[in-house]
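$ fold --in a.seq
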Amino acid sequence: MLNSDIESAHRTIDKEINALRIMEKELNENLTKALDLMISTKGRIIVTGMGKSGHIAQKIAATLASTGTPAFFIHPAEASHGDLGMLTNDDVVLAISNSGETKELSDILVYCKRYGIPLISMTKNVDSSLGKAGNIILKLPDAPEACPLGLAPTSSTTATIVLGDILAVALMERKGFSRNNYKQRHPGGKLGAILQKVSDLMHKNDEIPLLDEHASLRQVIFTMSSKMLGCVGIVDQNGDLIGMITDGDLRRALVNSPDNNIFSKEASDIMTKNPKTISPDILVAEALNIMNTTGKGITQLFVLDGKKPIGIIHMHDCLRAGFTIEKKNDNSNSIHNKVA
């Protein structure tokens, strides 16, 4: 059975790839026209479809909305019972039907014509009711379904979802949609956590342990203990970060001062000069990777704007956010995020 199952899988993959190849060859200027219309609309992209096309329409609407193009799904049957009121003259409707003859779409098509709402038709049949009603037609491939009966939507649904992705990706590229834009629309769950920046987690303002370069060792110990971040940043008279003292630096200074004159020293005498720093805009995963790969047991990094310290991030902050360090087989480490 194993071989026959693998052969079946190969046949399905081949047929669905073939459908995509046909669609690829048939792409034309209508794609650009549809994108021009979608990006210029003052309203939303209203995506609709029935049955399997409806399920895919929901996915397309969700993808558009999460990538910078306001969109939502309307069920054709619900549209006929009041949800047509959700449409405005500023919207664009994207209607999906492989055959183009889905009866439940008829009320939406009539409504678009009556009120001059632009309609993009996604169908394989340009001469269908949906094809003729559309201002722009995005043609789906006329290819055999992968289903052995040739009936269950398989190749056609794959092509539809890919065409929806083509629209979403092209709109992202046109708009210059960034990682930060994406994060703003995905604040929760794993995506939001992965895209967190150092500025989202860093300690700021009074939480930053900072002292003047002439501060006494007593001040260093007090500040390090009260801020509880295991270090103190040392700044010059201009407020620029010039050094850093960790609890390890303190211990080493005590061990190396047998004459007990340690408390006569200033912060600049025992600080590590030019410590490793980061900017507020890098990802938390990058910051954790810097701490993990520097090779000096760094567990905290000062965050600078130019030369001025504006924050500090500790390894524990990263771990609390769900990031983990896992050992690979080659003895190197990789950074992961376990937030669900």
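$ fold --in b.seq
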Amino acid sequence: MEYFLELFLGGMTRGSIYALIALGYTMVYGIIGLINFAHGEIYMIGAFTALITASVLTIFGLNPFAILVLAGLAAVVYSSAYGFTIEKVAYKPLRNAPRLSPLISAIGMSIFLQNYVLLAQTSDFMPFPNLIPEFAFMEPWAHIIGSSEIVILAVTAVAMVLLTLLIKFTRIGKAMRATAQDRKMAMLVGVNINRVISVTFIIGSSLAAIGGLLIASHIGQINFYIGFIAGIKAFTAAVLGGIGSIPGAVLGSFVLGWTESFATGYISSDYEDVFAFSLLVLILIFRPAGILGRSESKKV
């Protein structure tokens, strides 16, 4: 039973990180119908920014929690700036172009950012300091779940609640929902869709940066390629739950995390990706819109 619980909580931890990234995919798709394949690299840049900031702050002898918070703020600001710039440079000029054009632009931006970080840093894995101390009250359950996993779950839960409140009860949230429902009509009633799209990219990039910091501190190492793998998994989770649906992205992320965790624990770690993508194929065959997605009927 303890082993099952360990795998269950481990799957929740994976799912939490996937959810933080998948929300960026699903929000952008819901607003402008674009798959931002450079989003995984934003996650990676957030992790590297946190590493550089933490390395500098360690020199001043700050405690790990203060370093964690300041590194997180630096990662959020820097990654948000990248997300904002990518939208203006790579996507906005192609907003009315055929769908294939922004897709190619997104893939090109992903490759560019990978190689940019590769040249600026290194191709080797770099050690990341453990910024989350072990909590004393967690000692009896340390063999099942660690303090870093508790922090990841808690931060993800808080982020989900804040995002939900933002979208439901704020002015910009209402503008985002209006733009997602009908962009042209939103423009006619006075919604600044350029501002809405920019805010969407900033929010998605911030969440990805937080995920990059948390998982890097948990695992203890990063390299320039982590964004590609995590991005593909998070995109899979978004499609699994229903691309364009925020609750769907979260649900799909946890389903994917549990699938990988139990496949690793009970079968083999060599097949975790096989089971994850097999699940996606089955969902798309029997429910193409995803778990919580809605099928749209089009008049011909």
